[in-house]
Design brief:
By secondary structure, the chain is an alpha/beta fold. Helices cover 48% and strands 8% of the residues. The chain has two domains: 154 residues, Leucine Aminopeptidase, subunit E, domain 1 (3-Layer(aba) Sandwich), CATH 3.40.220; 124 residues, no CATH class. Helix 10 crosses helix 12.
Length: 362
């Protein structure tokens, strides 16, 4: 996939270019800078770095990678966090933008970033992550390149406390509902939970219930037009029909429904697969294969790119013989973002990564 978050030591990552949070002056700094010098060969790298001279905050330059498993090291001077009122955010955005553009000029097919300035430079990790995702997303909309965000562990990524709290509450709500359904049954659990919660905290029946939703109306109309069953409905009666008749009446495949949704969105194929964090070759394969069966993370990536609501997402999954599960943390996290109309796949993937789940894309 074009963008990935991985757990690793950046000095051990294989990529065309490794990005280093460099000391502005040509000397060995601390943190990532020190580790990269040590792994690449300090004497050679420092000599090359001295030829560049001082790097202004937000700017980037490159050297050979020497003993690293890469062709280049891109050195960018990140901002030292003071209080957020000294242009720190603008400098950090420039670090990513200049580094990515330099990688493109060097004809790199892949580039690996640390979370710039979030270590010894003190930039708040949640803001550093949002800026990284924003600039990488912007770049990938117009370039074909594999971009890796390399962290030591999930704790190195920090989502905003508000987002983490909202996701956790959403997961807890669904867990609570499952327990009530096991005890009282679906209808009675809905009534009890509504009565237990203050009015302002009450929520609608979750996406996974068999109870029809008001928002299913548009989907049911679309399904009727395709002469197929709506998601969650039983299969039509097969009584008195031959096997040939049954098979001849099958509805659209995943590929057919996906292409219809893309046409209806008004977006180009390129815009869709880029927003979905899908490789161009994978999308071409889907275009050419009417019976293409995607992985779940691929199907959901397209749902996010097309900004589908939950019923339409459920329908698209069903075309690939896939479904949401109320016991899956992965499914709950993705459904949280869809429910709240948050369709930035990079932000979703950061949340999935932090919760130890696979990320969307292919």
């Amino acid at each position: 996939m074009p963008f990935q978050i991985i757990r690793n030591d950046i000095t051990k990552v294989k990529a065309d270019a490794i990005v280093n949070t460099a000391n502005p002056k040509p000397r060995v700094g601390s943190g990532t800078d020190s580790a990269i010098y040590a792994a690449a060969g300090q004497e050679q790298l420092l000599a090359a770095r001295k030829k560049i001279g001082e790097i202004a905050p937000g700017d980037a330059a490159y050297t050979e990678a020497y003993q690293l498993d890469a062709r280049y090291i891109i050195h960018t001077a990140g901002p030292v966090w003071i209080d957020g009122t000294h242009g720190e955010r603008e400098v950090l955005r420039s670090c990513y933008a200049r580094s990515l553009n330099l990688a493109a000029e060097l004809r790199c097919e892949s580039v690996a970033f640390p979370l710039i300035a979030s270590g010894v430079y003190g930039f708040p990790k949640d803001e550093a992550l949002q800026i990284a995702l924003s600039e990488i997303s912007r770049f990938l909309m117009t370039h074909e390149m594999k971009v890796l965000l390399v962290v030591f562990g999930r704790k190195a990524l920090q989502l905003s406390e508000r987002l983490v709290g909202s996701i956790a509450q959403y997961i807890d709500d669904h867990a609570e509902r499952r327990l009530y359904e096991e005890e009282y049954g679906a209808d009675e659990s809905s009534r009890r939970l509504r009565n237990l919660r203050p009015r302002e905290e009450r929520w609608e029946a979750p996406f996974f219930d068999a109870v029809p939703h008001e928002t299913d109306t548009a989907l049911e109309e679309a399904e009727e037009a395709n002469a197929g069953p709506a998601p969650g409905d039983p299969l039509p009666s097969l009584s008195g029909k031959s096997l040939d008749e049954v098979l001849g009446g099958k509805s659209e495949t995943f590929q057919q429904r996906l292409l219809k949704l893309i046409d209806a969105s008004g977006m180009t194929d390129v815009a869709v697969y880029k927003k979905a964090n899908i490789d161009r070759k994978v999308f071409s394969s889907i275009r050419c294969k009417p019976d293409y069966k995607p992985k779940k993370k691929t199907a959901l990536a397209f749902a996010i790119a097309l900004e589908l609501d939950l019923p339409t997402t459920r329908d698209l999954l069903s075309r690939a013989e896939l479904a949401f599960s109320p016991s899956s943390q992965f499914d709950l996290i993705v459904s949280y973002f869809i429910t709240n109309k948050k369709f930035n796949i990079f932000e979703i993937n950061a949340a999935l990564f932090q919760y130890g789940q696979p990320i969307l894309g292919e």
